[in-house]
Specification:
The protein has five helices and five strands. The protein is an alpha+beta fold and 166 residues long.
Length: 166
């Protein structure tokens, strides 16, 4: 099975004091919140607000989380959350996430180059989240039937051209 990756989406945040622990580094659970920020902003950039998804009666709970910690972030660091769709179907949606420490030049390059730029900078945390589409009763649903316009956006976001295949 060939995975259907989207381009990377980038969200910049600054580490707040309350996100750090007694060791002066970001408390590990905060990275999960950052992954969610990245997912929410990715969906928004695709052209649909998560609130709209919920108004269609769809929910997207997390069913699995994988996280690898490489180097800690610290108070006042400007970190970049890198997020992409790693695969999807009518029932499931998988995201890949990275939290990176970019130089100012690397951050600026994200705004001046094409959408296919790969994440750069120092890798702090990497991971993935798996989700399943459910209705308000938490019964699995086929998102393609419930919101075909959203399904079309996901398909378009993960389209591969011959030059994308390695």
């Amino acid at each position: 099975m060939q995975l259907r990756y989207s381009r990377w989406f980038y969200t910049h945040i600054r580490v707040r004091y309350q996100e750090t622990d007694q060791m002066g580094v970001v408390y590990h659970a905060n990275y999960l919140n950052w992954f969610e920020i990245g997912r929410t902003e990715l969906i928004r950039e695709l052209g649909i607000d998560y609130r709209e998804i919920e108004q269609h009666g769809l929910l997207l709970p997390v069913t699995e989380i994988n996280t690898q910690f490489h180097t800690p972030a610290r108070y006042d660091d400007r970190v970049t959350i890198c997020t992409r769709i790693a695969d999807f179907s009518a029932l499931k949606l998988h995201f890949e996430s990275q939290v990176r420490l970019l130089t100012e030049e690397e951050r600026l390059a994200l705004h001046t180059t094409n959408d296919k730029i790969e994440p750069t900078g120092k890798l702090l945390v990497s991971g993935a989240t798996h989700h399943v589409w459910v209705n308000r009763d938490f019964r699995p649903v086929r998102m393609a039937r419930e919101t075909p316009e959203l399904f079309a956006l996901l398909e378009k976001a993960t389209e591969r051209t011959d030059s994308d295949v390695t």
